[in-house]
Design a protein that fits this description.
By secondary structure, this protein is mainly beta. The chain has one domain. The chain has no helices and 13 strands. A hairpin with a 7-residue loop joins strand 2 and strand 3. The two termini are 24 Å apart.
Length: 150
């Protein structure tokens, strides 16, 4: 079950010219850290003992949404990016749609996206439909599925 949370915070941002913005995030009280793409935590959820983070780069004029799924030790299980060159993006209308799914708007308020967390990782082909990107090998197991709603 996805439950809103606030136990993860950004402790350091790494901005290197020509490289994606990265952040070190920390789990409150545990001292555990992870390095993830993005800069600003827009939303975070607990899913059992796991964490779902939605981060942006803090630039609404050419924004990217980075979705990260981490285990209880803050090890990255899966990650997806939603972005398009020279395209504005604002995360809006976020709602828990099911025990394991969120819906939201990003590029405009009329376009809805559905993010689902699988119970077990599934084989997925890299090369999700544009503008969804996954930085993993060509054929991999993935927890997250992000699709535009019809």
């Amino acid at each position: 079950m996805l439950e809103p949370a606030d136990s993860i915070r950004v402790v350091r941002v790494l901005q290197t010219p020509g490289q994606p913005v990265m952040a070190w995030v920390e789990s409150a009280g545990s001292g555990r850290t992870a390095r993830v793409a993005g800069k600003v935590i827009e939303r975070q959820y607990r899913c059992g003992d796991r964490h779902l983070l939605l981060l942006t780069e803090g630039n609404p004029y050419e924004e990217a949404l980075h979705v990260h799924y981490l285990d209880s030790e803050l090890r990255l299980l899966d990650s997806i990016e939603l972005s398009a060159p020279y395209t504005a993006g604002v995360l809006d209308h976020v709602a828990v749609a099911a025990a394991n799914a969120l819906t939201f708007a990003f590029f405009n308020a009329h376009e809805r996206w559905r993010l689902e967390i699988a119970d077990t990782p599934r084989w997925r082909l890299r090369g999700n439909a544009f503008p969804v990107r996954r930085k993993r090998p060509l054929f991999c197991k993935a927890w997250l599925v992000l699709e535009k709603e019809a």
